[in-house]
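Subject: Predicted fold for AAA domain-containing protein, 201 residues

User T.R. writes:
Posting the sequence so we have a shared reference for the thread.
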Amino acid sequence: MVTAAHAPAAPPPQPDSTDAEHLQLTTLRGWRRFVHTTPHVPDLLDHGRLTTLTAGQRLAYDEARLTHHAQLVVIATATIRRVTLEGRRLTYLNRRAETGRCGLIVSGPARTGKTTAIIQMAKTLEVIHRQRHPHNGGDIPVVYITAPPAATGRMIAVEFARFLGIPLLRKPNITEVMEAVCGVCLDARTSLIVVDFTDRE
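User M.O. replies:
I've generated the structure tokens; pasting them so everyone works from the same file.
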């Protein structure tokens, strides 16, 4: 986790819904889209109204329902609530810590909701930050990356840079990358860094 004190004044960029890259949570624009988007619940038509729809209207209606279900609305389970609570506590403890900051490890078997839990925790913490600092649109309170379990330090550093939009025009060493990443995180008041190790075996 990184605690920062300064924030840039630039407002957050608006994602382009036609760009698939902006749907990825591992990019800043994709993450912001995820945080600020509220799933739209389509109207549920009864059988009588369905029979009055034209073929085109029925297709649009079915597509809207499929889109809604594809968004996988998350239920706040006991695990998600606990992970979110622990994440909030640790970020509070880390605010004034000069060294020895606390971290949180979420582990368990595959397909048990670990990624969902940490994403919901991170989203909650970002929403809280936005509510407390509504005029600091350029803040980046959360950095979220994914990496394989065997990822090297340099690979993880490059993923941080990619999320933050830091251009890497040549092959920099890990020290240069991390200096750039830490500089941006300090300026952007980053308080939570999430590394999701994606072991799909």
